[in-house]
Amino acid sequence: MDFRHLGNSGLKISEIAYGNWITHGSQVEADVATACVRRALDEGITTFDTADVYANTAAESVLGAALKDERRESLEIFTKVYWPTGPLGHNDSGLSRKHIMESINGSLRRLQTDYVDLYQAHRFDTETPLEETMQAFADVVRAGKALYIGVSEWTAEQLRAGHALAQELGVQLISSQPQYSMLWRVIETEIVPTSEELGIGQIVWSPIAQGVLTGKYLPGQAPPEGSRATDSKGGADFVARFLEDDVLERVQRLKPIADDAGLSMAQLAVAWVLQNDNVSAAIIGASRPEQVSDNVKASGVRLEADVLKAIDDALGDVVVSDPAMTARNAPAKRPS
Description:
Layout: E1 3-5, E2 12-14, E3 16-19, H1 30-42, E4 47-49, H2 58-67, E5 76-81, H3 97-111, E6 116-121, H4 130-142, E7 146-151, H5 156-169, E8 173-176, H6 191-198, E9 201-204, H7 236-239, H8 245-252, H9 255-261, H10 265-274, E10 279-284, H11 289-295, H12 305-315, H13 325-328
């Protein structure tokens, strides 16, 4: 496993991180989830990403139980706050001081740890002054409950404003967690240049496009039984955007490229996002331990320029690259 600095901080993280969105507490049973975490540890992964909203807090509990006997100093544990948790009361979501302070305490309890290495704003809260949000995050850091702060799916303008306030408050906003894959490249035009300027690193999610880039979904055919596309709890609505026949046909053209590189299609997809120097880590998920072992083989892989060009040529115009998609997909108001 190779390690990279998270942004311009001194914190090093495994360049492949293990995330438990969708799977833990919902899609797979706790024993399988624990087996996946154990395999991640065996494969050299030290960075684990979760959020309070995943399975309505259950995912944090599963991860905490799986990691409780590990040396805490050898791990980097990340979580997030914003989306609704609990009974969906009027203050059970967002980035108000109240919700942040209550949420960090709940997350630490479920994760069975005194602190998280990174506490992230899971989305931008349009209903809370940014000054209030950043002050609350700064106080969480000063209380020793988090070491660094980060954000997820913020626009370049929001990143710049949040980073400026963090600097004023004397805390380090060091990360951005966006969706990024061969098929979804919306961060390249604005988010990445802004992050490079500010010293922010990307921790990217869905590098395999919810399994589409494994090649298991075929044009003109129904999704395989038991796949994520058939599981209402496993992201079926999310993966649907990539299941158009023209996209799937293009994805099949990646198979010979992966074969020539000596990689599985999943490994090629993870290795591709790691070619971006602003990416600190790619988050992988798994419903079986074998998937973890397959994906980690992308660590340390360097793709030559001709391979990168062949990928671009294969995918052509099915790639989504409009930077406006970050704002377009953001919630206009707090969910409830």
